[in-house]
Amino acid sequence: MSTSEFSLIDRYFAAQKLHRSDVALGIGDDCALLLPPAGQHLVVTLDTLVADVHFFAAADPEGIGHKALAVNLSDLASMGAIPAWATLALTLPKADEDWLERFCGGLFALADRYNVQLVGGDTTHGPTTVITLQAHGFVPPGLALRRDGARPGDGIYVTGTPGDAGLALAAAFGGATIIAEFQAYVRARLERPEPRIAEGVALRGLASAAIDVSDGLAQDLGHILERSAVGARLEIDRLPLSPALTASLDWDSALRTALAGGDDYELCFTAPLERSAQLEAAATSWDCRCTRIGAITAEPGLRLVRADGSAFHLERLGYDHFSGSG
Length: 326
Ligand code: ADP
Ligand code: MG
What we know:
The chain has 326 residues and is α+β, with helices and mostly antiparallel strands. The chain is built from 10 helices and 12 strands. Helix content is 33%, strand content 24%. Adenosine-5'-diphosphate binds at residues 9, 13, 27-30, 88, 90, 118, 120-123.
């Protein structure tokens, strides 16, 4: 790009205060030079956010910067990894310095909290804002939380209160009204998801499978079921619904939003029964709640049941970019 590309890089991207000792060379050369810890798996993930697909172009840039990193840290959390580095590819329609400053403010505030250093990237001009962030972390071999380890009899758990971000989206599209008391909370749940890093690390050796919930709890649990070749019985009356969700929607819609709303960035995981006491003890020190919502079955498929044993029918499991059933 033009010379201003380089001043933008210096002024904004190279301005992070945090410097990790495992970064031998960060932003400014053709490549970064990094020192991964010996004997650990390097865990790598990447997510793209497209303006007006994944975020409102006019949204608070700090929130966008936060979320671009948070969704990637959430992927690392779902694997039980500890985050370390990030790279950022940014396509912008114009060099809006106020936007960039606030975007980096949100990005670095979260990065600093999780000891993540931005070590490189690319900055280009294009017709719409596209943010691609790659995050890197570490996990000891054999301890990563994968999707393929769920076994019949395992309990199914979810962190936090799924459905809040889905409620925020429903409200943005005129499909729900949130009372004043809950508006800031619900907005933060959509715009500032908190990656469950400590929880993911605590689940090493405890969880048999894990995924982070980005496209809807039912759909993302479905990925665990498929990869593990098992089924599940979800007791939907056990779903942890936030007061904001139950105050804003009728019970049935609240359940559907918790199951299929998407954008939660909570962890859904499974754990063998014999580890449930240890798991529940560990979860008492977490920043979020942890709720058992069902069990893995040998019979394939996802069954949703009410407390009285009757079936609950869900038309739409979650968000799919290509089916249009979002
Ligand atoms: P090259 O043309 O050799 O790929 P660039 O001019 O694109 O290098 O980038 C110069 C330096 O700035 C590199 O170290 C690159 O990693 C970094 N950089 C560029 N854009 C970003 C960005 N959006 N975020 C972080 N680092 C960036
Ligand atoms: Mg370049």
